[in-house]
Each structure stands twice: as C-alpha cells, then as structure tokens.
Amino acid sequence: MKAVTVTESGGPEVLRVVEVPDPEPGPGQVRVRVYAAGVQPVDLAIREGFRPPGVTAEPPFVLGNEFAGVVERLGPDSGHWAVGDEVLGFRLLHSQAELVTVDAAQLVAKPAGMPWEQAGSLSASGQTAHVALTLLGVGPGDTVLVHGASGGVGTVAVQLALAWGATAVGTASERNHAYLRELGAVPVAYGEGLVERVRAAAPQGVTAAFDAAGRGALEASVELVADLNRIGTVVDYPGARRLGVRQLRAPRTAERLAELVRLWESGGLRLEVSEALPLERAAEAHRLVGTGHVRGKVVLTM
Questions:
Q1: How much of the chain exceeds pLDDT 90, in percent?
Q2: What residues contact 80, with CB distance under 8 A and at least 6 apart?
Q3: Domain range annotation of the chain
Q4: How far is Cα 105 from Cα 107, in angstroms, rounded to an integer?
Q5: What is the second-level CATH architecture of the domain 2-125+252-301?
Q6: Bridge partners of 109?
Q7: Measured distance CA(286)–CA(199) in Å, rounded
Q8: H/E segment holding residue 168
C-alpha cells in the first residue's frame, strides 16, 4: 500500500509517499481501505519531533490519526463489523495510508449521506472539541469564548457549545467572520485589543474559554473569565502551566464519535473541508495546515 511516511524529523520536505507492507488485522481488529484521512496540527508537530503521550515511534513511520473508509478484512473476534461496512474512526498514527488496521472498538458507522472527505475529517477535531467543552463544563446559560473558532477544532467547538445551550463567541481573522456567523457564533478579530472587543461583543460576560489557537489566547482569557478552572487549551500547555489554567486531555472513544455523527445527522453540525488533496500531495497539505489560516480541515484522499 501507499502511505505518508516520516523519514526523519523536520519540515514538510521529510515526508515521502512510499509503498509499505499491507497491514494485517490481529485479534479484535479490522482492516479498513481508507478513502479520506484528515491532516491535524498534531501531525505537523509529530513530523517535527513531538511525541504525544503513549507514542514512541521513531522514523520511518506512517502519519495520521483519523480516517474514513470501508471495512476490507476482519481479524478474529472483531465484533459486529462486516466486510463492506462504511466506517470512520481513529488510531494513533498509521491512518494516512491506503489501508489501516484498527481496534474494532475505535470505529463507528458512516452515515450514507456523509461525504467521504467530511467523514475523514471528523474524528480528531471533533473529539478534541468534545473533550474540551466537556471538561470545561459547558452547558445552558454559558457564554464560551473559542479561540481559533474557524479551524477544524474551533468549527466543531462552536457548534457543540450552541447545541449544549451556550452562546459562542469566536476569534478568527476578519475574512472568516461571515463563516462564524453562519455557524451561529459572535465573531471577534484576534490580536491587540482582543479583550476589549470580546467585552463589547459579550456584555453579559464570558464564563468559559477554550484555546484552540495559541498566540496569547490564554493571557486574554484570564482577563475575561473569573474561574481559572473554566479556561483550557489543547495547544499551549506551557502557557497553561504558567497561568494556572487547564491542559485539556482525555481519551478518544467511539461513544464520543458516535454522538458527533448523530449531531451531524440531525443537521446540528456543519463540517468544513477547505482542501481535499490526493495522498501524493501530503507535503502541500502540511504546508497549508502550517499557515494556521485553514478554514475547517485539510484532508488527504485515496
């Protein structure tokens, strides 16, 4: 199979799309033929040398941690899945490839009407947003500030906040303000003067803040939110330690992913894919994500 492989730590130029042995499913696993796989900022960090908790891989290895495709082969004791089932799922690494083996419990059924590109983009960003808002206790009556609201994680976070009864204020560049309004958020521009702009946009006050952007977002958040336990980040862990706010982490689960799929099916979740590129253009996909200005997600297609 072809796969996006990291040959050494470095920039996008270290990526190679090469042929590697087809993986075989073990007990409790299935093999999925991948149709689409999202590209996450964490993929860029891993390429550069970062390793998330539980990951010890050294080059060469295959990137990617979310995908959508069709079940192609079953391992022993792989549960209720059948060859031909359309699925979306997650695993640490190995997802940006034509084939992936995965624990059967890390898959959910793909709705027939969900485009492959959207299905391949949902799991990582969607579950990151779900974990963050859950840990911050977002619910009815809250006003939530989402930093990086037009990105893949932010897009889902804004819509989850609304679905859970909160008001969402989102930071983004002005070119994405109309997009945020379409999602139902109150947009504000990031940068100098952010605190004053947020106070003007949300005179009722902000009760929680979620940082999916970095770039000084936490410093602004501590000026706006009284309870430090309701400020958290998935990108700026050094800032979180310095300011005494939360580093938002929790395991991904099929239950979380299934809830997001149900929200999409009910019309409550819009998924934005700004670019769908063939696997061979993985380095270009990394460069796009690295700009920090992608609306929604970039995905690779097979």
A1: 95
A2: none
A3: 2-125+252-301, 137-247
A4: 6
A5: Alpha-Beta Complex (3.90)
A6: 87
A7: 35
A8: strand 167-171
Nearest alpha carbon to residue 39 among 290, 292, 273, 298: 298
137-247 and 2-125+252-301 share a CATH fold: no
At residue 174, what is the residue type?
A: E
**Greatest alpha-carbon span in the chain:** 59
Q: How many CB atoms lie within 10 A of CB 259?
A: 18
- Alpha carbons 261 and 80: distance in angstroms, whole number: 19
Handedness of CA 275, 280, 284, 285 (dihedral sign): positive
- Burial grade of 48 (CB within 10 A; 0-12, 13-18, 19 or more): middle
Q: Kindly report whether the global pTM for this prediction surpasses the value 0.85.
A: yes
Peptide bond preceding 60 in cis form (omega within 30 of 0): yes
Cβ contact 201:169 at 8 Å:
yes
Sequence-distant (≥ 6) Cβ neighbours of residue 66 within 8 angstroms: 37, 38, 40, 88, 89, 90, 95, 120, 121, 122, 123, 124, 125
Q: Which amino acid is at 141?
A: G
Token pair for 297: 């997600």
Q: What is the per-residue pLDDT across 118-176, written as a single tens digit (0 to 9) for each?
A: 999 999 999 999 999 999 999 999 999 999 999 999 999 999 999 999 999 999 999 99
Regarding the domain delimited by 137-247, which CATH topology (the fold level of the hierarchy) does it fall under? Rossmann fold (3.40.50)
Q: Name the one residue in this structure whose structure tokens are 């084939």.
A: 99
